[in-house]
Write a structure and sequence with these properties.
CATH topology: Jelly Rolls
Low-confidence stretches: none
Structural class: mainly beta
Shape: globular
CATH class: Mainly Beta
Strand order of the largest sheet: 8-5-10-3-2-1-11
CATH superfamily: Jelly Rolls
Distance between the termini: 30 Å
């Protein structure tokens, strides 16, 4: 029988990955609810903060802007940065292994929902020097 707590998950119910630039609350992942083909969660970026240029080797990513405004960069197939101002309702597709970055340029928090396929790239975030595990609700 499926556990309701693993199907209906709020960010406040799970531990979060904390960083100097914000946090990621994984709400769907193999270790959270047994998702086999992807992982995802909510990213919170305070005003003026963002994650620097990086990539996820072997994985695609979807970024959906829930709230706030920012600057999104995704490199094209030749490595040239494509930069766009994004806001609520915008979906950003990051092709496999492509470098990208997000910066909150607004005066309010920016919230994103991210999906990684296949699951796994988010676990590498634990190796970053500013990583800290935040208990549920923080």
């Amino acid at each position: 029988m499926t556990d309701r707590n693993n199907v209906f998950v709020y960010p406040k119910d799970v531990s979060a990955f904390g960083f100097d630039w914000g946090k990621l609350s994984l709400t769907v992942a193999p270790e959270v609810n047994g998702a086999a083909r992807f992982s995802g969660g909510v990213v919170d970026l305070p005003p003026g903060q963002g994650h620097s240029r990086h990539n996820h080797p072997g994985a695609e990513e979807i970024i959906f802007v829930i709230s706030g405004n920012g600057e999104q960069m995704v490199e094209d197939e030749t490595g040239e940065p494509m930069v766009e101002q994004v806001g609520p309702g915008c979906t950003i597709f990051v092709p496999e292994s492509r470098f990208h970055s997000t910066l909150n340029t607004g005066d309010r928090p920016m919230q994103l929902f991210v999906v990684y396929s296949p699951a796994g790239p988010e676990l590498l975030l634990r190796e970053l020097p500013d990583f800290r595990l935040l208990p549920p609700g923080q």
